[in-house]
Write a structure and sequence with these properties.
147 residues; single chain; 67% helix; mainly alpha; 3-stranded antiparallel sheet; 12% strand; Arc Repressor Mutant, subunit A
Length: 147
């Protein structure tokens, strides 16, 4: 089948995804971070004190999964949940000092992976690749939104 030939576009794309996944796991494991945690750390670093609902929407993760993730991170003292003073029904999530330090380590790992991935590409090639990947992303979003 053409699709699974080792040099087909789909096969190469799949290989890139798997290699990135594997490399990310190796580097994140070295600093004690679960693979799903970096987006949460980045989201909270960008805007601390978001509600669980906001995080769920921003990260496109089911609320139940957010709860499990935050329970684990809270247990590790990376985040803390506090009731919203204006609405006690809302729980807001904040990075702790330990979480902020870990974010810096995760940011270094992400920068390292980015450099490894794109080190041989010129700036113009990076711009083109980004545009093409954004198109692939949009194509997939469109398909998912239809279903």
């Amino acid at each position: 089948m053409e699709l699974f030939k080792s040099d087909s576009l789909y096969s190469v794309f799949f290989q890139v995804i798997r290699l990135h996944y594997h490399r990310s796991h190796i580097l994140l494991d070295k600093i004690g971070v679960y693979p799903g945690q970096p987006p949460m750390l980045f989201a909270l670093n960008q805007k601390d004190g978001q509600s669980q609902t906001q995080l769920s929407e921003m990260l496109n993760i089911k609320p139940a999964t957010i709860t499990v993730m935050l329970n684990r991170m809270e247990k590790e003292k990376l985040v803390e949940r506090r009731r919203d003073p204006g609405d006690q029904r809302i729980s807001r999530v904040y990075l702790t000092e330990k979480g902020k330090k870990l974010f810096c380590e995760v940011k270094n790992v992400v920068n390292n992976i980015e450099e490894e991935c794109f080190k041989e590409l010129t700036e113009n090639e990076r711009i083109l690749l980004k545009r093409l990947l954004m198109q692939v992303r949009d194509n997939l979003h469109e398909t998912i939104d239809k279903n």
